[in-house]
Amino acid sequence: MIKAGQISKGISLRFKGDPYIVMEREFVNPGKGSAFVRLKLKNLISGAVIKETIKSQDQVEDIVVETNEAQFLYSDSGSYHFMDNVTFEQYAIPARGLEERKNYLKEGETYQIVFYEEHPIDIRLPLKIVLSVTNAEHAVKGDTVSNITKSVGTETGLEVKVPNFIKVGDRILVNTETGEYVERVN
Predict the structure, then answer these.
(1) Quick check: 79 and 92 in contact, CB under 8 A?
(2) How many CB atoms neighbour CB 81 within 10 A?
(3) CATH number, domain at 18?
(4) pTM, to two decimals
(5) Rounded to whole angstroms, how far apart are CA atoms 51 and 38?
């Protein structure tokens, strides 16, 4: 059991009888009254996302989840398919609730898979990922006076705002939490 004030993003807990992972957390300490925590929780079984407010002194049950490294194989209309790097066992993770992760999954790359009661339920992305630019507008000569950005498409389908000098074939580092350009990679 942990106090609601100690909950952080990414922690797993049991709430109203179901396992959840904390997607967002906001601590609020109003001038009047007691402090509370606003949480955005994702159900680890159904994929449903809920928002809850809990007093910071209330206690919730934290749960244990396991993580294994697995190689991303492919995605279909309803699942992401992975292969365990040690046992070579293959499993599918339902895409429902994880749709935003699709643009950061590259075939053949290794990711952390979260298991709850021996079932794969979530994908932990690295903080930053390298993606290749597949389509970009051409830079116009003379547009270097200020920080001009343009949209580019990446190999996974992600659209990213980048500086004007990025061109097709460049590799860029993208923050997976914000979807923003970090730097060009050589």
Answers:
(1) yes
(2) 16
(3) 2.30.30.30
(4) 0.71
(5) 7
The enclosing domain of 84 has a CATH number of 2.40.50.140
Cα–Cα distance measured from residue 82 to residue 107, given in angstroms and rounded to the nearest whole number: 9
Residue type, 41: L
Query: Of 62, 82, 114, which residue sits at a domain end?
Result: 62
What pLDDT, in 10s, does the model give residues 4-17?
778 888 888 888 88
3-state secondary structure the chain: CEEHHHCCCCCEEEECCEEEEEEEEEEECCCCCCCEEEEEEEECCCCCEEEEEEECCCEEEECCCEEEEEEEEEECCCEEEEEECCCCCEEEEECCCCHHHHHHCCCCCEEEEEEECCEEEEEECCCEEEEEEEEECCCCCCCCCCCCEEEEEECCCCEEEEECCCCCCCEEEEECCCCCEEEEEC
Q: Which domain, by its residues, includes 155?
A: 128-185
pLDDT the model gives residue 171 = 92
Residue 90 near residue 42 (C-beta atoms within 8 A): no
